[in-house]
Amino acid sequence: MKKNNDLYEVFLRSIRGVDHRHVGSLHADTPEQALTYARDCYTRRSEGVSIWVVKSCDITASQEQDAESFYDPMDDKPYRHASYYVLPDEVDNM
Amino acid sequence: MSESGQAIFDRRIESEQKVEPKDWMPADYRKNLIRQMSQHAHSEVIGMQPEGNWISRAPTLKRKMVLLAKVQDEGGHGLYLYSATETLNATRDEMNEALHSGKAKYASIFNYPALSWADVGAIGWLVDGAAIVNQISLQSTSYGPYSRAMIRICKEESFHQRQGYEMMIVLANGTKEQKAMAQDALNRIWWPSLMMFGPHDSDSAHSGRSMQWKIKRRTNDELRQSFVDQTVPQIEFLGLEMPDPEIKWNEERGHYDFGEIDWDEFKRVISGDGPCNRDRIRHHKKAHDDGQWVRDALVAYQTKKSAASAA
């Protein structure tokens, strides 16, 4: 029996100059095939000027249950935001 | 018949499209970008030193946390820019070597010492302020990864300038001594801040080419004028004296006039002979060498892990 083919994540750059954004995933046997399928599935209406495909298993992702240790340290640092510094109206345009 | 790489490139630049890493580009465009972007990255990282020296001496816990966060941001901005430069096939090691050998430059302002606590305020206000003027224009640079790094950096940078100016307001409205300290910082940091924009357009070696290629979007002198125009009212608001007696509103031009920069000093500092050039590079090398055992340990760990998973 044939083994399952790989899952690939698909990223599209909608116009030149912006970041690639994740749009979905698909199954394929090779990266080249994944690129062709991505063209067929995700750009039928000319969405995008560039496609990236990445094997899903090559993505290392943070886990929801680890969110605390990843993000909590940032919660008590409002001074990292520009709005923390209140300036008089005359000079508030910086 | 297929169009030449040069023709496609020229059309992209002409029509305000971004050039992306895998596109064909002229060798000199790549070289110019590597020079400018690595210089920009080095400036972020070397810029951590004058302010970093004050972290342990910040007058309050609040100011210490703010300064720590700012210096941490600068390190992050260096990383964004090094990574963007690596998309042009320049390696991190090459860039570090060029910095250490003096081949690569960084903003000359960071070769001046931060002598008093007020300097930390003035640096945030003036040096980050000048950097923002430059970086806003670079958001529309023609190289995609550089442009995107600039957008990210500008978003984060506004807090740097605001915390510096807020500190200046406090000092300028404090005791006589505090106000004098603010004035002294302004007087010393003003000129090197103006020098950050580089030589006059007529003397700038790379400007013409970079403007043509849209790597740079506004000239050194235009950017410098914008900075002066936005900063003079901020000096007035603080109730401090102008650091340059020639600063005067010019009705006809619709801009502030200002005095001539000491270009001999500029050349001296940029070519390695400023007050702190040797210290800055020595410190950077030492930090890099002191971190060698960490990099070695990471490689050893990785080697051990892949040996274990192969077994």
SSE layout and pairings?
The complex is a heterodimer of chains A (94) and B (311).
Chain A: E1 6-13, E2 21-28, H1 31-42, E3 50-55, H2 67-75
Antiparallel strand pairs in A: 1-2, 1-3
Chain B: H1 5-14, H2 27-46, H3 48-52, H4 61-86, H5 92-101, H6 117-138, H7 144-172, H8 176-195, H9 207-212, H10 220-238, E1 248-250, E2 255-257, H11 263-273, H12 277-290, H13 292-310
Antiparallel strand pairs in B: 1-2
Helix pairs in contact in B: 2-4, 4-7, 6-7, 6-8, 6-10
As residue ranges, the low-confidence spans of chain B are none
Q: What's the rounded overall pLDDT mean of chain A?
A: 90
Low-confidence stretches of chain A: none
The percent range for strand residues of chain A is 15-25%
Largest sheet of chain A: 3 strands, antiparallel
Shape of chain B: globular
Q: SSE string of chain A, helix = H, strand = E?
A: EEHEH
Structural class of chain B: mainly alpha
Proportion of residues in helical segments of chain B:
55-70%
- The strand count of chain B comes to 2
Give the CATH H-level superfamily of one domain in chain A: Phenylacetic acid degradation B
Strand order of the largest sheet of chain A: 2-1-3
Question: Using only CA atoms, what is the Rg of chain B?
Answer: 21 Å
Helix content of chain A: 10-25%
The biggest sheet of chain B amounts to: 2 strands, antiparallel
| String of helices and strands of chain B | HHHHHHHHHHEEHHH
| Tally of helical segments of chain A | 2
What is the residue-mean pLDDT of chain B, rounded to a whole number?
Answer: 95
Principal-axis shape of chain A: elongated
